[in-house]
Amino acid sequence: MTALRKILKILLTVGILALCAALCFQAADIYRVGNAPENFSAPGVRIEPVYSRQIAGDRLTALLPLFWTAGILAAAGLIVEAAGKPEKGRALRFPEDVLRGMKSRISELPGEAQREERRRKAVYLAALAVSAVCLILSLWFLLDGRNFAGTDLEHTVGQLLLRVGPWVALSLAAWSAAVVYGGRSAEREIALLKTLPREKEAPPAKEPGRGRTYLRLALYALGIVLVAAGAANGGLRDVLVKAINICTECIGLG
Amino acid sequence: MVKMKNWIQTHLPTRRRLIQLYAALLYNAQLKGYVTGQIYTGGSKALCVPGLNCYSCPGAVGACPLGALQNALASSGNRAPYYVLGILLLFGITLGRTICGYLCPMGLIQELLHKLPTPKLKKNRVTRVLSYLKYVILAVFVVAIPLWYALQKFPVPAFCKYICPAGTFEGAIGLLANPANEATFSMLNILFTRKFIIMVLIFGASVFIFRAFCRFLCPLGAIYGLFSKINLVGVKVEESKCTHCGLCTGHCQMDIRHVGDHECIHCGGCIDACPTGAITFRAGNITLRRREVEEAPRKKTLTRYRTIAGAVALAVLVGLLVYFNAPETQASPTPTETTAQTASPTETAGPAQTTSEPTVLPETLPTGSEVGMLAPDFTAPLYGGGTFTLSRDGLGKVTVINFWATWCTPCVAELPHFDRLAQAYGDQIQVLAIHSELITDDVDAYLAGFDYSIPFAQDPGGLIESFGGSTMLPQTVVLDENGVIVYNQVGSVTYEVLESLVAPLLED
């Protein structure tokens, strides 16, 4: 049963990946054919539209064997899963989270653990610095109104991806590297702390104060006032009008 | 027998799944929309639903809060977006990301896809970092771009337009799947191709990664996550019982650091994982759910309450389904019938409606909205004074009519093409831009910001319907010099397309 499960899982994975790839390819290919020079009678004037029900139907029909295969594999996989014992997922505990629990019971960290903690903090600070630089460079683009002038949104979004995307990616990469280091560092610290005797129990829990309740009440009042003000200034009608009309571009139609 | 009973019990849908299905059905209660291919246009659409559910879905009976927020920000030059911000605030304080766990159809779709038995990519440190990407998307696509373009009077709901898989799946594909919307295919191009590929990638990723869209991309989840410290309903940890063992975060499939943080969707999966029973699902001070073993003593009471709640919920759902799917009392008018209504000056109510001129259009062809038919005569008030009557001002010239609205992105983007066309062909053609009858208080201010030479009119009511339109904008109609329709399409047009339509008519 386990072997069958594994085989079905692998086959279904291949099936789903193939189906996704085929769907993406068909969409891209319809676009390519529709925008090929042969389909233009004059600059900007197409002979046939890029998509039609016929074209979409034909392309999807070509994928029917793949749909059927993936569907049958999915059904088989689900039946085998349901018939067998349910797989219990193993709890995935990050060392950082375990360390937080351990530290709540230790009053004073040993020197080596403190040094480990300092190193970890330094790495996080470095990641923060990288992110701050990336943020400044992104804001440089985002806060410049000239980058959003004109109605050529394709160009604007393209520029946005080119000029802001890399900084976002760099920031995420820096944090990923920092947290990977942080995880290893936490593992080393856990090993150090495990050798210590259990000093104290968890600190006594704080009684929840009334501050949160007051904050909630204030925000509820603010929310109700905002909704009333919105209904009065026409915001409610704006939502209705947008919702009962289809902005073709907004849902990706064009 | 016992084995079978156990098997059924373990494989029955959970209460959370039932609530998810219930919410999805409630948001999309206009089931007849899937048959007719038309979206719901009733007053309930002024209310935002809590979850991500495209309001252009044929079944949707409420507005999407994220779409409404973007449009409110995009229109913030005209009025402050109080209503949507207030609604989001109320949803956030009350439920926070409990909405993601229980009331979001996109979450349901992703969880069902994740049920497919394939190898799964579990959460790790990198996914924890990637979970912050949705805040970047919120800042850039939901806030920055709509606000920047609002300054230029150009409404751009960037997240809807470039990313939202709910819009592609429920809105675009939901409409395209219906044969009644066959003509809509002709407007598809790069935008649809790109969004379709994004949707396939997101759904594909959801099979292998738990709630891939929610965790990494969804700006609505990012907004609700901001309320994680104060939301009223959700899982809470009783600190006095917590031993910081980490089993709760270990069992969670989301990228949480601790229970109830901004990544927690309050699904309650951790409640039974907690060995000390420190986690409960609460609404304020009322405990709605605790560990199964602790529920045993009050099982009878709970079952009674749950049965009552279930019965009420079912009654509400049935009532709404009947209400939203009740057959129309009046048959929808045929194009010719509508035409007759619109052409009649006594039946067209408009702010500055004047009597129409007697029609002089040839009557050998049927009047209607389809290509080859005679265009319905109409009179519409012009911005800046006067009226436009087709039979008076358009006849004898090639006439280009554009239906638009200030709040429609592609409409305002293509207005310069019509203006350029009018300037290029001068007196040979007549170009008219007709604003939608809905939200007309900002049109004068909008037009004052531009130097367009074409006349702008306002739909006196029902005019777009007489040209076969309904809820989709923009729409362009081209008439030959006899008033016969030669082109009538919903969707954006380029200058080249307009020129290719007009030039042959002038040559004839």
How does this structure look, described?
Chain A has 254 residues and is mainly alpha-helical. Helices cover 70% and strands 3% of the residues of chain A. Chain A contains nine helices and three strands; from the N terminus they run H-E-E-H-H-H-H-H-H-H-H-E. The two termini of chain A are 49 Å apart. Chain B has 508 residues and is of the alpha+beta class. Chain B is built from 23 helices and eleven strands. Chain B has two domains: 10-325, no CATH class; 335-507, Glutaredoxin, CATH 3.40.30. Chain B has helices spanning 2-11, 15-27, 32-36, 65-74, 82-94, 98-102, 105-114, 125-130, 133-151, 158-162, 165-176, 190-208, 212-216, 219-225, 247-251, 292-295, 299-325, 335-343, 390-394, 409-425, 443-448, 463-466, 495-507; strands spanning 233-237, 279-283, 286-289, 379-381, 387-389, 398-404, 429-435, 456-458, 472-473, 475-479, 485-490. Mean pLDDT of chain B is 86; it is low at 331-360. Helices cover 45% and strands 10% of the residues of chain B. The chains are: A mainly alpha (254), B alpha+beta (508). Chains A and B meet through helix 1, helix 2, helix 3, helix 4 and helix 6 of A and helix 4, helix 5, helix 8, helix 9 and helix 10 of B.
